[in-house]
From TrEMBL:
Coiled-coil residue windows: none
EC number of the protein: 2.8.4.3
Record's catalysed reaction(s): N(6)-dimethylallyladenosine(37) in tRNA + (sulfur carrier)-SH + AH2 + 2 S-adenosyl-L-methionine = 2-methylsulfanyl-N(6)-dimethylallyladenosine(37) in tRNA + (sulfur carrier)-H + 5'-deoxyadenosine + L-methionine + A + S-adenosyl-L-homocysteine + 2 H(+)
Stretches assigned to the MTTase N-terminal domain: 83-201
Domain spans labelled TRAM: 456-519
Gene name for this UniProt entry: miaB
CDD domains in UniProt: Radical_SAM
The protein's name in its UniProt record: tRNA-2-methylthio-N(6)-dimethylallyladenosine synthase
Cofactor: binding comment: Binds 2 [4Fe-4S] clusters. One cluster is coordinated with 3 cysteines and an exchangeable S-adenosyl-L-methionine.
Species of provenance: Gracilibacillus halophilus YIM-C55.5
């Protein structure tokens, strides 16, 4: 008996495809007679605790444990040999990085990665819940993948990420997409080996979503996407509870990694030859607030600036917690890049108040003034929501005027999307969708104009580019980003990939720059 057979014999018998079909029909009949609570608690193999929105706000800061003892159970260590996995990622950098962790775990289990769904033995959808259209995309994809399950009943199809933290989503999958094998939450990623094991050898859909926000698990393996730029989590979760936002419920409370663990990870990346790290958190300026010693983002950045890594970025900043110490540190060290993504959301103090952003238009502008004073070259970018419930024309005009006044070089703009369970989703909204769409267009036109104007200033200038690889459109063209986060396309030898080169800008577009490499600046080996 081989390892897999031994394991299988200890578990529930593995279903064959006929079992799967008749089970599915039985399931459907039983499901129709059950309430959603019944569904979750009685029928499925599950540890499901939906995030409790009322309790979430009362959560305590300090009961977070840090674990350094992650390991893959022996019987799962080679289970993936000869098999492939595919992870499709939606949402923010946080999710992108979680995907790297899951890829790391699966790789340690012997799996290799594939981009071809037909080739995959495990498909995971790492989902985002931030807006309704993000969720719709995922449900569309689940539907597309269904035929693969019929073709290959051994395929494990899993849904993870932020959507899995929502009760309504879990219910919908349980009711309408029973061919899904596995649902797990953002706090359960380190349990992937056990979950795959259960999905492989159990008959039932495996649902494991913990509402208790995760502890910090330190030594998870990571399979990073490239070898030039790397993401490094510095904290998890968010305690800001902006009234429109689902993140504090899907990601749990704020918890910071210890400085020494972060510094060690960045040192290790530098030693491996990485040229850029981006420090990640939903609200990085709250870094360290949960420690019982005085230590903040400024202190951490100071520490990291001493590491021999050419570029350090961080995202996302919250204006409320952006302090003078951080501005001071950023202005002093060349490897801490002067690009600050500082989501404003609205230019109207009244809207900001109902969003619970905890700053006014004036306070935001004052912060921008301070940043510019200390870092005259700083690039500021932002996120903006239009059509927050009952936003008036005047309030929207205030957003436009703030965009102009700050001179954002680019912005992510969104139409407000009500998220179930958040306070603002319960509010009546009298602003018609047509009006919201028109506002978004006007805002986008302004942002595009500002971006194009910024780009024009680069004509004839020489910029430093970290070369990332061939451009997506033309393999003869290389591309990379400047310190101020502008994408540059230029012709050059492939040998400069991964290097920092000087590029003279010859043409400017709305979002990108074209240029020619300044040969003398390149070291020829
Ligand atoms: N933590 C970051 C943002 C995380 S979400 C911050 O606070 O800045 C990324 C962006 O999505 C937000 O900045 C916001 O502009 C947008 N967003 C969040 N919830 C939204 C909603 N319900 N509808 C529309 N946009 C939303
Ligand atoms: Fe959401 Fe606000 Fe937290 Fe950002 S700060 S993740 S917008 S609750
Ligand atoms: Fe989406 Fe979750 Fe990120 S909701 S934006 S993937 S934190």
């Amino acid at each position: 008996m081989n390892e897999k057979q031994r394991l299988a014999s200890q578990q529930i018998k593995q279903p064959n495809s006929t079992d799967v079909k008749s089970d599915a029909n039985d399931n459907l009949d039983r499901l129709k007679q059950m309430s959603s609570d019944d569904l979750i608690s009685r029928y499925f193999q599950t540890t499901y605790e939906p995030p409790n929105m009322r309790k979430a706000k009362k959560r305590l800061k300090k009961d977070v444990d840090i674990h350094y003892d992650f390991e893959i159970p022996e019987e799962m260590q080679n289970i993936g040999e000869g098999k492939k996995f595919m992870i499709r990622t939606y949402g923010c950098q946080m999710n992108e990085h979680d995907t790297e962790v899951m890829a790391g775990i699966l790789t340690q289990m012997g799996y290799t990665s594939t981009d071809d769904t037909h080739d995959a033995d495990i498909i995971l959808l790492n989902t985002c819940a931030i807006r309704e259209n993000a969720e719709n995309k995922v449900f569309g994809e689940i539907g597309h993948l269904k035929p693969l399950k019929t073709e290959n009943p051994d395929l494990i199809l899993g849904v993870c990420g932020c959507m899995s933290q929502e009760e309504s989503v879990v219910n919908r999958i349980l009711e309408k997409h029973q061919f899904v094998d596995l649902i797990f939450g953002t706090h359960n990623i380190h349990r992937l080996p056990q979950l795959v094991q259960e999905a492989m050898f159990g008959k039932e859909m495996v649902v494991e979503v913990w509402s208790k926000e995760g502890d910090i698990i330190e030594n998870l393996p990571k399979q990073r996407k490239g070898n030039i730029k790397a993401w490094v989590n510095i904290m998890y979760g968010c305690d800001k509870f902006c009234t429109y936002c689902i993140v504090p419920y899907t990601r749990g409370k704020e918890r910071s990694r210890l400085p020494e663990d972060i510094v060690q990870e960045v040192r290790h990346l530098a030693a491996q030859g990485y040229k850029e790290v981006t420090l990640l958190g939903q609200n990085v300026n709250a870094y360290g607030k949960d420690f019982d010693f005085e230590y903040g983002l400024g202190d951490l950045m100071e520490e990291i600036s001493k590491i021999d890594i050419p570029r350090v970025r961080f995202t996302t900043s919250h204006p409320r917690d952006f302090d003078d110490r951080l501005i001071d540190v950023l202005s002093k060290h060349d490897n801490l890049l002067d690009h600050i993504h500082l989501p404003v959301q609205s230019g109207s103090s009244d809207i900001l108040r109902v969003m619970a952003r905890r700053y006014t238009r004036e306070q935001y502008l004052e912060l921008v003034r301070k940043i510019r004073e200390a870092m005259p070259n700083a690039t500021l970018t932002t996120d903006i929501i239009v059509g927050f419930p009952n936003e008036t024309d005047e309030q929207f005009e205030e957003t436009l005027s703030l965009v102009e006044e700050v001179g954002f070089e680019s912005a992510y703009t969104f139409i407000y999307s009500p998220r179930e369970g958040t306070p603002s989703a319960r509010w009546e909204d009298h602003t018609p969708m047509e009006v919201k769409k028109e506002r978004l267009q006007r805002l986008n036109a302004l942002v595009n104009q500002q971006s194009a104007d910024t780009m024009k200033k680069y004509q004839g200038e020489t910029v430093k580019v970290l070369v990332e690889g061939e451009s997506k459109k033309d393999p003869d063209v290389l591309s990379g980003y400047t310190e101020r986060n502008k994408l540059v396309n230029f012709r050059g030898p492939k040998s400069v990939i991964g290097e920092m080169v000087d590029v003279k800008i010859t043409n400017t577009k709305t979002w990108t720059l074209d240029g020619e490499m300044v040969e003398s600046a390149v070291e020829v080996n």
